């Protein structure tokens, strides 16, 4: 009898973590989540084992992780990037602490969620071998983790894959993110501040992100690699806002109220050739379909 597949999702109470855990449960896997807080009711899954632990606390982490896992996915890290020390420690030191524990009981795959901000101001379409010069503490922490994991693969054959994610969206995302803020404002038919909306950004639907993670876990070719996760088809922010307004027949965006940052790049999107070639992944959900699903969800929740 084959042993049951088990997966540890660090950050399993978050937006992507919830959707990944739900999919893994459907596959019949045992799912364990580690996070600093209990899941909110909307993202609580009855069959998931939830462990409360700060991954920057190496001693406590060792006590909490007693068994080995088939797969480990690290989606953890401090969300409020205004706290620079916590941001750096949770995204970099936390990643190091996890790998030190799992060097003694190596999983089949360790997937690290990286970020497009690792590229800094590299010109789009951004490619995995571009020179990285991140501008934020979050970007530097993510890049430090990427460098650490790729070196660990070369030295120890630690089976890590880094997925550089662009903008994920979909149902059950927190209301402090771009699309939920816009949708909420349009449902309530209120004024809300935004930039001029001239930026282009790449949005990838959450189920596509989950499918990429699962493909990476099972791919031998993905080990030691950095892989972009996006659509390669950026959308103009103002067009998205106007589209949401049109669908919901409400909302009053205050364009220009939020100023661009000094280091703001107007057009950011990836090349996804490597994802297609290496793990056979490409997004299946069009932005039109994804935004309708997302609006439907928030419409039901908010009303």
How would you summarize this macromolecular structure in one to three sentences?
This protein is of the alpha/beta class.
Helix and strand sequence? EHEEHEHEHEEHEEEHEEHEHH
Q: Which fold name is given in CATH as the topology of the largest domain? A: Rossmann fold
- Looking at CATH, the homologous superfamily of the largest domain is NAD(P)-binding Rossmann-like Domain
**How would you sum up the global shape?**
globular
Instruction: Give the termini separation.
Output: 49 Å
Supply the CATH class of the largest domain.
Answer: Alpha Beta
CA radius of gyration is: 19 Å
Strand order of the largest sheet: 3-2-1-4-5-6-11
Number of strands: 13
Number of domains: 2
CATH architecture of the largest domain: 3-Layer(aba) Sandwich
- What does the largest sheet look like? 7 strands, parallel
Helical fraction: 25-40%
Mean pLDDT across all amino acids: 96
Instruction: Return the structural class.
Output: alpha/beta
- How many H/I helices? 9
Q: What is the strand content?
A: 15-25%
What does this protein look like?
The protein is built from nine helices and 13 strands. It is an alpha/beta fold. The mean pLDDT is 96. β4 (71-74), α3 and β5 form a beta-alpha-beta unit. Strands 3-2-1-4-5-6-11 form a seven-stranded parallel β-sheet, with helices on both faces. It starts with 5 loop residues before the first strand and ends with a helix.
């Amino acid at each position: 009898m084959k042993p049951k597949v088990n997966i540890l999702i660090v950050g399993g109470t978050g937006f992507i973590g919830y959707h990944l855990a739900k999919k893994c449960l459907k596959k019949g896997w045992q799912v364990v989540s580690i996070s600093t807080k209990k899941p909110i009711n909307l993202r609580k899954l009855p069959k998931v084992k939830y462990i409360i632990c700060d991954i920057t606390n190496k001693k406590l982490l060792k006590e909490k992780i007693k068994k080995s896992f088939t797969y480990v996915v690290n989606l953890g890290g401090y969300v409020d990037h205004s706290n620079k020390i916590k941001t750096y420690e949770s995204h970099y030191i936390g990643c190091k602490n996890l790998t030190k524990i799992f060097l003694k009981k190596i999983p089949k795959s360790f997937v690290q969620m990286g970020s497009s901000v690792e590229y800094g101001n590299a010109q789009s379409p951004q490619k995995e071998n571009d020179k990285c010069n991140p501008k934020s503490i979050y970007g530097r922490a993510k890049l430090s983790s990427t460098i650490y994991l790729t070196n660990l693969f070369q030295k120890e054959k630690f089976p890590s894959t880094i997925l550089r994610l662009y903008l994920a969206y979909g149902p059950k995302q927190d209301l402090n993110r771009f699309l939920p803020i816009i949708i909420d404002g349009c449902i309530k038919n209120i004024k809300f501040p935004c930039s001029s909306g001239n930026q282009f950004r790449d949005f990838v639907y959450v189920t596509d992100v989950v499918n990429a993670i699962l493909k990476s876990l099972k791919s031998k070719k993905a080990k030691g690699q950095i892989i972009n996760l996006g659509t390669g088809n950026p959308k103009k922010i103002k067009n998205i806002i106007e589209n949401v307004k049109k669908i919901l027949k409400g909302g009053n965006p205050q364009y220009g109220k939020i100023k661009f940052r000094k280091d703001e790049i107007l057009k950011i999107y990836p090349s996804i050739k490597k994802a297609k070639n290496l793990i056979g992944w490409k997004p299946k959900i069009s932005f039109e379909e994804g935004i309708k699903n997302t609006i439907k969800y928030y419409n039901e929740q908010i009303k």
